[in-house]
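Same chain as my last thread, 212 residues:
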Amino acid sequence: MSISSFLHTQHAASQPAIDDTLFDTAGLVITVEKTFDAPVEAVWTAIDDEHAWKWLPFPCTGVKYDSPARGVGIVREMGSPFEPLRFLWVEKEKFWRYEPNQRIAFGVVSGNWLQYLLVRQYGEDKTFTDLGDGRTKVTWTIAVTLRWPLRFVTWFPPLWRAAYRVVGIGPLFERRVAEVARTTRPPLRSINTNGIASAAPSNHPADKEGTE
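reply #2:
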């Protein structure tokens, strides 16, 4: 096998995450929460669309889908799935829960050399709570089991929480959420029988004239 082939080969996870039992068996399970001044549709889109994770301060980082399809059973690539750095870190994540604007859960089923050497199993569960008044709370649970000799790193949960809070849903993600909110139409509104406007979610791109 050539070096190039080795770097790009996907290896099945030692303990593939395919359901909620991952959160009972992983070596480390942490939860972080954050409230955003943005509608739930904007926060969900920032996490779920094809631009997800491109806000990380690393080149070629993001997610890659084989098709526009979304839902339970879909597999996407995450890490550095774009050339010329595709050889560094590519993990394949499979969704076992997909509830738009409410909840999403997935786990790693395979990875290239870097993922395979460092991680035995990994998964995430995110819930999105609409707090009203254009505010959304995200509750993010991460489960990971590392390989030796890195397993000692899981002895410091506060450091993991800080890293996910700052890098994962910190200022860079807030900027992305704000961008999505600016370029997405506000929820369509209808009038109920009492004459009170009620909101209905909409994710259509906004026309510039409607946002200026």
